[in-house]
Write a structure and sequence with these properties.
Layout lengths: L11 H4 L2 H10 L10 H9 L4 H5 L5 H18 L6 E6 L6 H5 L5 E6 L1 H10 L6 E5 L16 E6 L8 H14 L4 E6 L2 H9 L2 E3 L2 E2 L12 H6 L4 E8 L9 H7 L2 H7 L2 E7 L4 H7 L1
Parallel strand pairs: 1-2, 1-4, 2-3, 4-5
Antiparallel strand pairs: 5-9, 6-7, 8-9
Helix pairs in contact: 2-3, 2-5
The structure holds S-adenosylmethionine.
């Protein structure tokens, strides 16, 4: 017998966790899919929520973000050697990355607001190597759960745009200070889209997106990162770049410099600088 529909009571930014879930679930129906997410596909049938009414037709963008994150995590873990790979997912929502990446070497830390963690724990299966932490990403307390001698990969997928610009800078500086040698993966929206959400972006008749105060042009991301103490810029992509077979028109448009600069959303990697011995000597 099928279990009864799960009721949920989310609003504001926590409700946005249902949006990428909807898109990853829809991807599961494609033959040439970018990722396998049977858990997401099952979950959208079990949650009592009008996904199509809220988010409209599924799109590939959250799927691209999830797949690129999966690939980057796997590459990071493979490069870890003897060091313990720890993946911290900030604003994890109902992401199913531990099951998609499925590498038993990884220890997963899932950080989200208390109401979001409660839902995650209720709806997703338990995972032997994963631990949930009820904490704002902006609160340094979550960093206490990250072992000092590991090589952390911090994923902030679908999170930083909901913060004020200064909060984004403080968060990245805090990660740099507490987790030298970390890789940080995040996504960006352009300033025009940020402004649209501040005016009240009605996605569908039923759903208005929350405010997204942090917008940045993809081309400005490296300079933005380099200005933060202890942070250095890695690669930056537009959504047209990683899997162009799914974004042909976007790929063509993104070759036009001014269009790309003004319109494109981004996916980015930052690294935090490993501290030298001299740094620790100065501190003691
Ligand atoms: C768009 S969802 C992204 C979910 C997930 N990363 C994914 O890609 O499926 C945004 C998530 O950020 C979480 N969130 C909002 N504010 C937060 C904060 N201050 N600290 C940690 N998580 C936060 C929400 O609860 C929600 O789970």
């Amino acid at each position: 017998m099928r279990s009864p529909q799960q009721t949920i009571d989310l609003s504001g930014v926590p409700e946005t966790m249902l949006w990428p879930l909807w898109n990853r679930a829809a991807e599961q129906r494609r033959r040439n899919r970018l990722l396998d997410d049977p858990i997401a596909a099952d979950l959208v049938t079990r949650i009592d929520y009008d996904f199509a009414g809220h988010f409209g037709r599924p799109s590939v963008y959250h799927v691209i973000r999830a797949r690129l994150g999966d690939d980057l995590i796997q590459a990071h873990v493979d490069a870890c050697g003897d060091e313990e790979p720890v993946v911290v997912c900030l604003g994890d929502g109902l992401d199913t990355q531990p099951w998609r990446v499925a590498d038993p070497r990884i220890r997963w830390l899932s950080v989200d607001l208390p109401e979001s963690v409660a839902l995650r724990e209720r709806l997703l299966p338990a995972h032997a190597n994963a631990q949930c932490i009820r904490c704002s990403a902006l609160d340094p307390a979550w960093t206490d759960a990250v072992p000092a001698d590991c090589l952390p990969f911090v994923s902030a997928a679908g999170l930083l745009m909901y913060f004020e610009p200064l909060e984004v800078i403080r968060l990245l500086a805090m990660i740099a200070d507490r987790m030298p040698g970390a890789v940080v993966f995040f996504d960006t929206i352009p300033p025009w889209f940020s402004r649209k959400t501040l005016r009240g972006f009605q996605v569908t008749g039923q759903y208005r997106a929350p405010r997204m105060p942090w917008g940045i042009s993809v081309d400005d991301v490296p300079e933005f990162l380099e200005a933060i103490p202890g942070v250095t810029a890695g690669r930056v992509w537009t959504y047209a770049d990683p899997y162009p077979e799914r974004t042909r028109i976007l790929k063509l448009l993104s070759r036009i410099g001014p269009l790309r600069r003004r319109l494109a959303a981004g996916l980015a990697v930052a690294r935090t600088v490993r501290k030298t011995r001299a740094f620790y000597m100065d501190r003691s």
